[in-house]
Amino acid sequence: MTRRGTGAAAAGLGQVVVVGSVNLDLVAHVPRLPLAGETVTGGTFARHHGGKGANQAVAAARFGAVVRFVGAIGDDEMAPAARVALAAEGIDTAGLEVLPHTATGVALITVDANGENQIAVAPGANAQLSGEAVRRALEGALRPPGVLLVNLEITDEPLLVAAALAHAAGLAIVVNPAPARPLPGALLELGPLLVLNEAEAETLGRADSIESSARALADRTGAPVVVTLGQEGALLVDGPRVERLAAHRVDAVDTTGAGDTVCGVLAAEVAGGRAIGQAIETAMAAAALSVMVAGAREGMPSRSEVEAFLASRA
């Protein structure tokens, strides 16, 4: 189902600027996920392009947004292919730096027969992306309408520089706080829309339920919070509004990249002026399509595919 970006002019969507990570995914499909200290044999191996930032950029581009990517790769044998893969999606990669004497990020992924996964990441160049590099790439170049989309596979410095520039330029900010770590107060003060999964909400919200955790986070940002719940759908907390949205039931092959699909498509929808509830519903449909194909990016759908899928479910 691999698709190329369809172009924002046709889709009527705004600009999505992604500041984040680029990885090579090394994936083992096995009958079941191993326990601690256990070896599970009988698997198959595949290599895919990945990284939460790059994946989210691809999801937004395939949905039709004009996408600019800012990040870092190494000068190893994996780096050129990583850039080419993004450019092939119609993504502007002028802000993708090559760091000398540095490895490109790698993710080691294990996927079981039900599509569930375990992931370990060696960040490489992602951990060395600097705030100054982000400033060079974005200062004076951001124009509304648009969205800045960031995740936590980079360090706080470039994250905060990107958010401050986007806020000053009038762009909306969408943060996927994954992998979860304490969010800087300076970021929360900018009122970002948070999109996170159940475990991340529990870690960051520190309340006795998912809804309470989401409310606590929304109180801190003054903005909507979206919690994805896998097969149980998603939870939206937006001021006094609390809404649960059902998931689309499909036969999952690989859930790797499903959350990135949600983030990328939601950012594209928000950039195009869609209401948050409708944006979530569309993003969840895109994620449902994505898990039906192995690989973090391989199943990410185009806008027309998502629209056809929603029409078939109406």
Architecture overview:
The chain has 314 residues and is an alpha/beta fold. It has a single domain (8-20, 54-104, 125-313), classed as Ribokinase (UDP-N-acetylmuramoyl-L-alanine:D-glutamate ligase, 3-Layer(aba) Sandwich), CATH 3.40.1190. Helices cover 35% and strands 25% of the residues. The chain is globular and about 50 Å long. The model is unreliable at 1-11 (pLDDT under 50).
Question: What is the structure about, briefly put?
Answer:
The protein is built from eleven helices and 13 strands. By secondary structure, the protein is α/β, with parallel strands linked by helices.
Keywords:
single chain, 314 residues, alpha/beta, UDP-N-acetylmuramoyl-L-alanine:D-glutamate ligase, 9-stranded mixed sheet
Under the CATH scheme, which class? Alpha Beta
CATH topology: UDP-N-acetylmuramoyl-L-alanine:D-glutamate ligase
Mean pLDDT: 93
Strand arrangement across the biggest beta sheet: 5-4-1-8-9-10-11-12-13
The CATH architecture can be given as: 3-Layer(aba) Sandwich
Tally of DSSP β-strands: 13
Which blocks of ≥5 consecutive residues have pLDDT under 50? Answer: 1-11
* Beta-strand content bin: 15-25%
Question: Tell me about the biggest sheet?
Answer: 9 strands, mixed
Q: How many helices?
A: 11
Domain count: the total is: 1
Output the radius of gyration: 18 Å
Write down the overall geometry: globular
- N-to-C SSE string, H for helix and E for strand: HEEEHEHEEEHEHEHEHHEEEHHH
Structural class: alpha/beta
> What is the CATH superfamily?
Ribokinase
Helix fraction?
25-40%
Terminal CA distance reads: 22 Å
